[in-house]
Hints:
Layout: H1 3-30, H2 50-71, H3 76-98, H4 112-123, H5 126-142
Helix pairs in contact: 1-2, 1-5, 2-3, 3-5
Amino acid sequence: xxxxxxxxxxxxxxxxxxxxxxxxxxxxxxxxxxxxxxxxxxxxxxxxxxxxxxxxxxxxxxxxxxxxxxxxxxxxxxxxxxxxxxxxxxxxxxxxxxxxxxxxxxxxxxxxxxxxxxxxxxxxxxxxxxxxxxxxxxxxxxx
Length: 143
């Protein structure tokens, strides 16, 4: 496999790793607390602005996944691993789009029980991110 394709696969694996790390951080450091303190995830109330991280991070990963798949298409082992990564990422993104966290303009208006339920469901997406990361490392290994 040409060196530029290997570099592209490495960048894609790294960016997917950043997504997994961000999801893990939120699951461990933010999600356990925000159901009782919704203002910590509402930028307009002085909390963190999740969108500032997630929107660009997802855009980078999705572009890199598509470009990597095109660049490595001629290499069957890498292509298969990339298709697994794309599929896993697509399922995780579809899930994220369908299952939005409860939000309210006023932190007091957020239902703590609904927020806690969302954080539990959100944990189930972590394996999908991990699958994408491992598949990308496999694609790089076979590259």
